[in-house]
Write a structure and sequence with these properties.
Distance between the termini: 25 Å
Order of helices and strands: EHEEHEHHEHEEHEEEEE
CATH architecture of the largest domain: 2-Layer Sandwich
Number of helices: 6
Strand content: 25-35%
Number of strands: 12
Structural class: alpha+beta
CATH topology of the largest domain: Alpha-Beta Plaits
CATH class of the largest domain: Alpha Beta
Largest sheet: 6 strands, antiparallel
Strand order of the largest sheet: 5-4-1-3-2-6
C-alpha cells in the first residue's frame, strides 16, 4: 500500500524551500517506513495566488503494509512542520492512502495546475473522501496545494522526483547503468526511445519525471554522450 503525504506553502523567499522540508520529513519517516521518493508538482501561477517562487507542492511517497499507520505518519510530519514553522508562510499538510484517491481527487490536482481554487473547494473534497487535510498556520492556503499534490502524485503522471533512492548522490558525468542502479527506472531520449548504454552529463542531480508510476529520466544529445533534461 502506498500513502501519499503532501505539503505546500511552508516557506518564504528568505527561508529553506518546501522541497528541502519534504526531504527532511522523508528522512525521518525512513527510520520506520520504506520511502519510494519525494515528488515536486507544479501548480497554477497566477496573480490571485500567493506563492514564494514557483508555486509547487511536494509529496512524499510512503510504502507500508500496516493499516491505520496514516495517523502516525501524519502526526510525525505535523509535529516537525509545526516546530519548523516559518513566520509569513501558510503551510498545509494532507495525507491519503491510494484507495482514498478517487478520480475526483486527481481531477482536483489537475485543476490546481490551470485555475484558481479555494480552501473551501479543498476542504469539501477532503471531507467527502475522508482525507486528512489541515492548515498549520498563517492563512492555511497551503491546504489547496497539499491536496492537489497528493492527487497529482497518485495519478502517476505528473511532476518530477526531487528524491529517489540514491539519485542525489550522482553528479557530473555518469554511466547510464549507474543511473539505473541509483533509483531511476528508465532513461529515455526526448523521442521516447529508451537508452541503456552511454554517458549522461548530470547538471545538478538526476530529476526523473513521474511517468506511468515510474521514475523516467529524459536525456538529449548525440552518440554516447547525453545531457539530462528536467521535465515535469
Amino acid at each position: 500500500m502506498t500513502i501519499y503525504l503532501g505539503i505546500d506553502d511552508t516557506d518564504t523567499r528568505e527561508s529553506r524551500g518546501t522541497g528541502r522540508l519534504a526531504r527532511s520529513l522523508a528522512a525521518e519517516l525512513a527510520k520506520n517506513y520504506p520511502i519510494a521518493g519525494v515528488t515536486r508538482h507544479q501548480l497554477f501561477v497566477h496573480d490571485a495566488i500567493p506563492y514564494t517562487s514557483h508555486n509547487s507542492a511536494a509529496v512524499i511517497h510512503v510504502g507500508t503494509s500496516a493499516n491505520g499507520c496514516g495517523e502516525d505518519l501524519f502526526a510525525t510530519c505535523r509535529e516537525m512542520m509545526i516546530s519548523d514553522f516559518i513566520e509569513g508562510s501558510d503551510p498545509g499538510i494532507c495525507i491519503a492512502a491510494r484507495h482514498q484517491i478517487t478520480p475526483e481527487v486527481i481531477a482536483f490536482g489537475h485543476q490546481a495546475k490551470n485555475m484558481v481554487l479555494t480552501q473551501d473547494d479543498a476542504r469539501r473534497l477532503a471531507t467527502e473522501r475522508e482525507i486528512r487535510l489541515e492548515g498549520l498556520g498563517g492563512t492555511n492556503d497551503g491546504i489547496i496545494g497539499a491536496l492537489a499534490g497528493v492527487g497529482l502524485a497518485a495519478s502517476g503522471n505528473d511532476g518530477r522526483f526531487i528524491l529517489r533512492d540514491r539519485t542525489r548522490e550522482l553528479v557530473g558525468r555518469q554511466d547510464i547503468r549507474a543511473i539505473l542502479c541509483s533509483g531511476v527506472d528508465e532513461v529515455r531520449r526526448s523521442d521516447g526511445i529508451c537508452v541503456n548504454e552511454g554517458t549522461v552529463e548530470i547538471r545538478k542531480f538526476p530529476r526523473p519525471a513521474l511517468i506511468q508510476g515510474k521514475a523516467v529520466l529524459f536525456v538529449e544529445g548525440d552518440g554516447d554522450l547525453y545531457r539530462d533534461c528536467v521535465i515535469g
